[in-house]
Amino acid sequence: MSSLRKEQLISAFKQLGLYLQQPDEALIATLNSASNANAWFTASELNKAVKAIAEMLDEQDLAQWFETVEVTKTPKTVGLILAGNIPLVGFHDVMCVLATGNIALIKLSSSDNKLLPFLLNRLCDILPELKDHIVYTEQLKNFDAVIATGSNNTSRYFEYYFGKVPNIIRRNRNSVAIITGKESKAEIAQLGHDILDYFGMGCRSISKIFIPKGYDIKYFFEPLEQYQDIINHFKYNNNYDYNKSIYLVNLQTHYDNGFLLLKEDEGLSSPLAVLYYETYNDVKEVAEKLAQQEEQIQCIVSNTPVQNLQVLPFGQSQHPKLWDYADHVNTIAFLNGLGIRD
């Protein structure tokens, strides 16, 4: 196995990013295949995912990110159990393993098993040396470390089976937004992407908003009308109808704009087609509450700075940078450290 060099890897990922900006017939055919295999992976959502990866592989960002990367000369085999809730959600983990010169032992999600292998094949066309660093498997065996993504339930299973090797085990996380009431219609419309892109199924999807007491919900709902076509997706519509019927039968107070239900709830994880909300008197209350729930939160969006909290502007939660690590665990630092454990 030939050693990989950092300059080679930067160039290869840059070229992959450029390729994704100009989809050819082979990529378009794969997108169609992925859409046919998974009803949640519509053409528009797949295109959003491809565009987000292309943005992530920005030349300047790659150069900056690779400054933190150590390319090992003694590759370790890193088992990857990938999620499939949104398209290409496992790409970044695979990229981290390859960028550090290690071997990615990949267990694909059955929900997302077409597009990622296509992209990795394309990457190997660009840099053939990577072929020896990518292995697919149905069951993880003979690995030196594991990165596993799942639910709170599967995480206990992962901890039992993988607890004896270096690991990153991810659980459920949710994302939230803070509204001050001073936002323009255009800003709330941008927040709609954070809420409804990928049908709200990602850990970076907003599942709860915090609004000031006395806030008129029409100022939130009206700018979202441009997203109303989402209700035409049969699976999303089924979830909307089901949750609406539950709230009506149980006489639970809620708002309804015809495609999104808004319900007051202290929880973070709302059902599909439902957005939880909570009111506040002072944004400091929200900052304190979210600080206490840090382990359950993926990202926070707000167009106003909030004390002691890292926030993203509206419309950016689904556009992570290379250094926006899932669960705030630095995957590169973890992989860099594998050699130190020898």
UniProtKB/TrEMBL annotation:
<dbReference type="InterPro" id="IPR008670">
    <property type="entry name" value="CoA_reduct_LuxC"/>
</dbReference>
<protein>
    <submittedName>
        <fullName>Acyl-CoA reductase</fullName>
    </submittedName>
</protein>
<dbReference type="InterPro" id="IPR016161">
    <property type="entry name" value="Ald_DH/histidinol_DH"/>
</dbReference>
<dbReference type="GO" id="GO:0008218">
    <property type="term" value="P:bioluminescence"/>
</dbReference>
<dbReference type="GO" id="GO:0003995">
    <property type="term" value="F:acyl-CoA dehydrogenase activity"/>
</dbReference>
<dbReference type="Pfam" id="PF05893">
    <property type="entry name" value="LuxC"/>
</dbReference>
<keyword id="KW-0521">NADP</keyword>
